[in-house]
Amino acid sequence: MNLRLLGLMAMGLLLGSCKKDADLVEIPDCDLSVPAPDMQRKLARYALPEQQFYIRPGLGTTIRTASAYRIRIPAGLRRIYGQPMSSSLVQVRVREITKRSDMIFSHAPTISGGQLLESAGMFSIRFSQDGQQVVLAPNASLDVTTVLPPALSSTTGMGLFSGLSSPADSSLIGSWLPLQAGGITPFPASGTSTGFQVSLSSILYNSNASRLNWINCDRFVTASPLTTVQVRATRPGATSANTLVYLAFSTLNSALRLYPATSAADSFLAGQVPQGYAVTAVVMHMDGNQLYFGKQSATVAANQTFAPTLRAVTEAEMAAEIRAL
Questions:
Q1: What's the rounded Cα separation, in Å, for the pair 99 and 47?
Q2: Strand, coil or helix: 185
Q3: What is the pTM of this model?
Q4: Of 315 and 168, the one with more pLDDT
């Protein structure tokens, strides 16, 4: 499929999702126009680091990652602009997100078209040789065997999603685009599942590589009724420029970023949140060089509000609080 067409389809889905149910507050979580504050760069230091591997070109190779994923790389690779592969080693760069804490550290909210997702694992796999990007040759496929995250509540209804960048910052994940059906099956095929078998065709991998190159194994959380959740940042001067707010779900492998309300600078909203789930509202604020952190837990009810007390913390203390979610 033409890459321009893919991009237009993705944008159409994203913008089309801005329409909310009539009884829910209209909030800017669908256009993702609000940039992440500078604090996001501090949080990114605590994400699972990128892993690097080197493989010989022309040989099928399997590598094992820090999260125990098995990635089977085909012999068929090509340079993105059509130049022939050389005899140099191919660099493989892998990133993984399997926990709620890493979703926050990596700015990877579990949302698609305004709907909550539950993630069975996210990964990014990039290839290069002699400084040039490498993709899959025609008819080749990249196969990944994942491991189920301990926090995952269900394996039913899983599909593949491609990461969409935030218009406010093209380097960050803003939302997820559903991909075509198929390409993901429980592993092993019989008995108790321990993960998923993900197969990315050359068409799918190469088109995804032109964007953020993130794949998410996800399911839509279809519970209802839905409501709008409001979180107040109880600190003078708190705005979207210096404050980051998330909902971390206790019984789902999910995390939602909240966006500022138009009515009050210190209020942040998430729409279409299913009621009945236990969540922790997390507020991270930065005033000059001082960090503040607050959290408050509750079961989501209609028009749920949170106002956690913020306390001064060190960067290490904030990271430890997020890891404990």
A1: 10
A2: strand
A3: 0.88
A4: 315
- Cβ atoms within 10 Å, residue 131: 7
Q: What domains lie within the chain, and their CATH numbers?
A: 3-23+47-220 (2.60.220), 226-323 (2.60.40.1120)
Radius of gyration for the chain, computed over Cα atoms and rounded to the nearest angstrom: 20
Q: Which of 247, 259, 229 is nearest to 167 (CA)?
A: 259
* CB of 253 closer than 8 Å to CB of 100: yes
- Residues 174-200: what's their mean pLDDT? 90
Query: Given this model, what pLDDT does residue 33 score?
Result: 59
Residue 5 has pLDDT above 60, yes or no: no
Question: What torsion, rounded to 10 degrees, do the Cα atoms 182, 184, 189, 191 define?
Answer: -120
Burial class (CB in 10 A: 0-12, 13-18, 19+), 323: middle
Angle of CA points 197, 199, 204, to nearest 5°:
150
CA-to-CA dists, residue 191 to 92, 184, 187, 284, angstroms: 32, 17, 9, 43
Query: Does position 1 have pLDDT exceeding 80, yes or no?
Result: no
Token code pair at residue 242: 């210096």
